[in-house]
Amino acid sequence: MQINKAMFKQITNLNGSELYLIASLWIFLIFFISVAIMLFRMKKDYVTYMKELPLEEDETEKELNHSPESL
Questions:
Q1: Model-level pTM?
Q2: pLDDT, position 55
Q3: Residues in the chain with pLDDT < 50?
Q4: CA–CA gap between residue 17 and residue 11 (Å, rounded)
Q5: Residues 21, 14: contact at Cβ < 8 Å?
Q6: Alpha carbon of 20 to those of 7, 16, 17, 23, 31: distances in Å?
Q7: CB-based contacts of 21, cutoff 8 Å, min separation 6
């Protein structure tokens, strides 16, 4: 039980470190909100293109897969 009390005291006793906590919170919030705005403004065509990109085969890959040398 002593460990939990010591940890709680260490967390609540900031001793001037509030600026770092507030700055990190603001950086996180600004980043999170900017990513959310970017996602909501993204066009549906681009999302569909990026979603299907790993599944598409390139023309050169098709040729390599069906060439006699690869057999």
A1: 0.50
A2: 75
A3: none
A4: 10
A5: yes
A6: 19, 9, 6, 5, 16
A7: 14
